[in-house]
Structure formats: C-alpha cells, structure tokens
Design goal:
Layout: H1 3-22, H2 30-36, H3 43-48, H4 51-81, H5 89-103, H6 107-123, H7 136-145, H8 151-170, H9 181-192
Length: 197
C-alpha cells in the first residue's frame, strides 16, 4: 500500500472516529465522513469497499493493539504451562474483561465497544482479521485448562461468553456497565468451567 493511500485511509478513519464519537454512529452518513476528511464523495467506497469495511478497519486500528497487549502474555503463559498445569480460566476471563472495562471509561472507548457489538453480534463473529478477534486462541487456552470438554462444547461456551461480553459492554452507558467486573468475571468463569454435559 502506497504512503498516499495509507494517508488517505487514515484521514477517513480519523474523520469517522471523530464523527462516531460525537453522535450516534448509525446516523453518520458516508457523505459526511468523506466531507469531514476533505475527500470526494466516493472515497470511503474506494478505500474500504463499504461502510462496514470502514468500521472494520477502524475497529482493527483501535482495538487490536489493546487486546494484543493484554492477551499475548496470557497466551504465552498458557502455552508454557500446558495442560499439566493449565492457566486458571479466571485469568483468561479477566484478561478479556479488563480491556472492556478500560474502554468504557471514555467516550471513544464506549463508541468502539458499541461499534464492535453492533458489527459482531448480528454476524455471530468478529470481522477483524487479527487472531485476537477470532475464537481460536481462546478456545485453545480453554481446551488446555479443561481437557475433559469436547471441542464443540468449548466452542459453544466461548461463543456464549463472548456474546454476553459484547451485549454488556456494547450497551454500557456513561462508563457504567450494568454489572461489576468482578461479578462478570466470576459468572463467566463459572459458566466456562462447569462440568461437562
């Protein structure tokens, strides 16, 4: 990607972020985003393919570093400890909940959580290509911690847990989720570690 294209994409992402933070993202038109970036009316379509492509790129730019910083050390610890001495599931859950908790303390973070939930919940998956936005690394860590669970059950439990997180943090108002993080971590840990069916 040329430097000029990267710069134009960045201008569009910055304009969208600014507008999404100022008002309901669902009511911000592509025309307004293009104008805010000082670009022609087709710029978003040219650079991102669609509104959803723009939102996915924004989520990737802003959220991948947040989760990678938090989760890479947890994944390394899980792999190092292996199935003989697995990482506690509560540690994995906390490593996922804590970034959400930090995000919802700011207007920008709440906007990003809203966009993430709005994008991922209807599709049942996250659109971002980073491994931290797929179920695979979490399912691997959970399988190490609970080798007695079949792969399908691990996948189902993880999907339920992450859906709950998106529901809670995607709708958090004024930085206050409807449940304390400690309660949520305990609840998710209990669900993930319940005895096999």
């Amino acid at each position: 990607m040329s430097e000029e294209i990267a710069s134009t994409r960045d201008r569009l992402l910055t304009a969208a972020e600014r507008l999404f933070a100022a008002r309901d993202p669902d009511k911000v038109s592509l025309r307004v985003i293009n104008a805010e970036a000082g670009l022609n009316p087709g710029a978003v379509h040219y650079h991102f393919g669609s509104r959803e492509g723009l939102i996915t790129a924004l989520l990737e730019r802003e959220l991948v570093p947040v989760w990678a910083d938090r989760l890479a050390p947890i994944a390394e610890a899980s792999e190092r400890l292996g199935a003989e001495s697995p990482l506690p599931v509560a540690d994995l859950v906390a490593a996922i909940v804590e970034p959400f908790e930090e995000l919802i303390r700011t207007d920008k973070g709440r906007m990003l959580c809203h966009l993430l939930a709005r994008t991922a919940l209807p599709q049942g998956r996250l659109p971002v290509s980073s491994p931290w936005f797929s179920a695979a690394p979490f399912e691997v860590m959970l399988a190490r911690a609970m080798p007695e669970l079949p792969a399908r059950e691990i996948s189902e439990r993880w999907r339920l847990a992450f859906t709950l997180l998106l529901e809670i943090y995607g709708r958090a108002a004024a930085g206050r989720p409807p449940v304390a993080s400690e309660t949520l971590i305990s609840f998710l840990t209990a669900g993930l570690t319940a005895p096999a069916r």
